[in-house]
């Protein structure tokens, strides 16, 4: 009896186990195909796990140059951001413990006249762009009245037509030249002698330079459009994009106002446009501008300014080791402030402005942080300026027979002058540091140009990128900030110097 009972229990348990296994493995339906049954069968576990060949093929390390797939450095990027934030935050807390909270809206030394003059210039500067419109309007009216028909088979304008067009362009060019020169000269003189707050002066001078560049582009582009309208040359066609607004229909106030606000320095009668405005996108970008501006203000007042103030005595006594120490200490915060300013301007503000205007081409920068030479950096970090000088200075000079080196020299000379105007004039110290810092980029570009070539391999590109970052973050911006701050304090004295005493 016991044996029978035991046998019955075992049998019952066997039935139970089979039912349980069927539930777990999901018994296939009777109509399943053989292939489906094979796929549904769980793989058999290997018996000899400890002798599995885990090293069965040749494989390079993840960071080696011969790796088949490039690894992602997202984690390293996050680590570097955390290190920069934590390191600078610690020094900000240290300055709060030493000096207290230095953020104060009413403590800024600006007068009411600075604000009034700045506002007056803000509305006066665009008047020169309007004057350029009037000049082009007169030229367009003359072009409408004097357009000649081109005979069949004629390859281009006659010599007489060329002379007449050239004489007209000379008059228009003189008018444009006087207009844009007065626009920049008047603003520069007023800022230098009448506006003593550096921020207000910098914003005003930057507005004047932008309008100056836009006015020149407006004149050059319409000059070529007018030439193509009066004397078309076979094989030299106006871009098809301009067909919806051909010359002289583009000479209107609406077209000019759009160009004034468009996030570009290069004039075109027509730009690629988006279908609609994404207002949520605009709000997010403007929110980024506000938050980053507050951060820049806080970091400048709570970290950069105390470092600059504590550097004055070291510079005056020419204490070289201490100056180098101040320079290195200033390099981290200047880099953080510059990166925040870059993102606020090129990514947030220009994208918000482009969205509002439905401006389609938003390639305001490329991956300049991967620059393998100084030349690659200047081509990628500020594309509106780069495309402007390439279109209106470099290519026309090369097309007229100038060598590429001479054209590059002219571009960097003009850029160096504009940098000195933007930095030296608002600080009332035209000492040439910004000019030399920009103009002396040419030797560094020549030095690092071979490093980005394929002949040097990945090692050359890595060295070029390191040279770019060191020269830019350690020797460039911090040194310029020290020199202009010292020149400002030496010229006007310092109320804030008492804080460091």
Automatic annotation (TrEMBL):
Keywords, in A-Z order: Acyltransferase, Endoplasmic reticulum, Membrane, Transferase, Transmembrane, Transmembrane helix
Organism: Emericellopsis atlantica
Region feature Disordered, mapped onto this chain: 1-40
Biological role stated in the UniProt entry: Sterol O-acyltransferase that catalyzes the formation of stery esters.
Associated pathway: Lipid metabolism
Active site: 419
Record protein name field: O-acyltransferase
Polar residues compositional bias, start-end: 1-33
Compartments, as annotated in UniProt: Endoplasmic reticulum membrane
Pfam families linked: MBOAT
UniProt entry tagged with the keyword Acyltransferase: yes
Single annotated GO MF: diacylglycerol O-acyltransferase activity
UniProt key word Disulfide bond: no
Bilayer topology term: Multi-pass membrane protein
InterPro entries named in the record: MBOAT_fam, Oat_ACAT_DAG_ARE
Family, as annotated: Belongs to the membrane-bound acyltransferase family. Sterol o-acyltransferase subfamily.
Gene Ontology biological-process annotations: triglyceride biosynthetic process
Annotated transmembrane regions: 114-135, 171-193, 286-304, 335-354, 431-451, 463-487
Lineage: Eukaryota, Fungi, Dikarya, Ascomycota, Pezizomycotina
GO CC annotation terms, alphabetical: endoplasmic reticulum membrane
């Amino acid at each position: 009896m016991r044996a029978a009972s035991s046998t019955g229990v075992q049998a019952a348990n066997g039935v139970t186990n089979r039912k349980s296994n069927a539930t777990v493995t999901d018994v296939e339906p009777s109509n399943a195909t053989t292939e489906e049954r094979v796929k549904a069968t769980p793989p058999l576990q290997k018996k000899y796990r400890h002798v599995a060949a885990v090293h069965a093929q040749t494989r390079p390390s993840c960071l080696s140059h011969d790796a088949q797939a490039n690894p992602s450095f997202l984690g390293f990027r996050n680590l570097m951001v955390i290190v920069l934030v934590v390191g600078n935050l610690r020094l900000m807390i240290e300055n709060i413990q030493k000096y207290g909270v230095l953020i104060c809206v009413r403590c800024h030394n600006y007068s009411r006249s600075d604000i009034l003059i700045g506002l007056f210039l803000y509305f006066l500067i665009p008047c020169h762009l309007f004057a350029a419109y009037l000049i082009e309007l007169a030229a367009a009216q003359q072009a409408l009245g004097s357009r000649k028909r081109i005979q069949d088979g004629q390859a281009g304008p006659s010599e007489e037509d060329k002379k007449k067009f050239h004489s007209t362009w000379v008059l228009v060019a003189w008018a444009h030249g006087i207009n844009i020169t007065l626009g920049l000269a008047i603003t520069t003189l007023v800022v230098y002698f009448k506006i003593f707050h550096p921020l207000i002066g910098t914003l005003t001078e930057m507005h004047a330079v932008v309008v100056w560049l836009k006015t020149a582009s407006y004149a050059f582009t319409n000059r070529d459009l007018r030439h193509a309208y009066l004397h078309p040359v076979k094989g030299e066609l106006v871009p098809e994009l301009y067909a919806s607004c051909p010359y002289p229909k583009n000479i209107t106030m609406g077209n000019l106002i759009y160009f004034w606000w468009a996030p570009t320095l290069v004039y075109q009668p027509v730009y690629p446009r988006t279908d609609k405005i994404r207002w949520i996108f605009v709000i997010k970008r403007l929110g980024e501008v506000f938050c980053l501006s507050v951060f820049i203000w806080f970091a400048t007042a709570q970290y950069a300014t105390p470092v600059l103030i504590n550097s004055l005595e070291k510079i005056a006594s020419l204490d070289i080791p201490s100056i180098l120490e101040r320079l290195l200490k200033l390099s981290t915060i200047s880099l953080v402030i510059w990166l925040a300013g870059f993102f606020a301007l090129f990514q947030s503000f220009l994208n918000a402005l482009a969205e509002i205007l439905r401006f389609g081409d938003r390639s305001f920068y490329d991956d300049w942080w991967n620059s393998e030479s100084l030349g690659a950096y200047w081509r990628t970090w500020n594309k509106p300026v780069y495309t402007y000088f390439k279109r209106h200075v470099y290519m026309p000079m090369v097309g007229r027979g100038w060598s590429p080196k001479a054209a590059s020299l002219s571009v960097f000379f003009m850029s160096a002058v504009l940098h000195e105007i933007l930095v030296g004039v608002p600080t009332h110290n035209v000492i040439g540091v910004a000019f030399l810092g920009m103009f002396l980029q040419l030797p560094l570009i020549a030095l690092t140009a071979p490093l980005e070539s394929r002949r040097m391999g990945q090692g050359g590109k890595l060295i070029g990128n390191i040279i770019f970052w060191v020269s830019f973050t350690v020797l460039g911006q911090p040194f310029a900030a020290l020199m202009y701050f010292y020149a400002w304090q030496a010229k006007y004295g310092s109320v804030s110097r008492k804080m460091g005493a």
